[in-house]
Amino acid sequence: MPDYLVVLQAAWIVRKARSVEDAMNIAVAEAGKKLNPDLDFVKIDVGDTACPKCNSPLKAVFMVAGVALVGLIFEMKVFNAKSPEHAAKIAKYEIGKRMPRIPLEVIEVAEIE
User: Fold this and answer.
1) What's this protein's family per the entry?
2) Number of structural domains the chain divides into
């Protein structure tokens, strides 16, 4: 059975952030705390989005009045999955179990050689 790299995105709310950079750091740290120690192999990063006007890449963070919505990316290797769909289900289950109120969406599943 093949191995897969599954990429998920999540919407993370950060309250009382002083800046966009602060919100990104807090979101990654909070997500890391929820995943550790069981899933410390999951890579966490702030996602990117494209500017609707010029198409240049921007960090996926929106901040108003000290509250930020941060788009996080989780990368997880899933071993011995039956199919890409099965790998996505496993990753979503394992991460979602530790973050029950965080919306997760699969954005990519790639087979690892």
Assistant:
1) Belongs to the UPF0212 family.
2) 1
DSSP string, 3-42: EEEEEEEEEEEE-S-SSHHHHHHHHHHHHHHHHTTTTTTS
Q: What CATH number did the domain enclosing 96 receive?
A: 3.30.70
Rounded to two decimals, what is the model's pTM?
0.91
- Write down the pLDDT at residue 3: 95
To the nearest whole percent, how much of the chain has pLDDT over 70?
100
Angle between helical axes of 20-35 and 84-98 (0-180°, round to 10): 100
User: According to the per-residue pLDDT averaged within each range, which of 42-46, 47-51, 56-60 is highest?
Assistant: 42-46
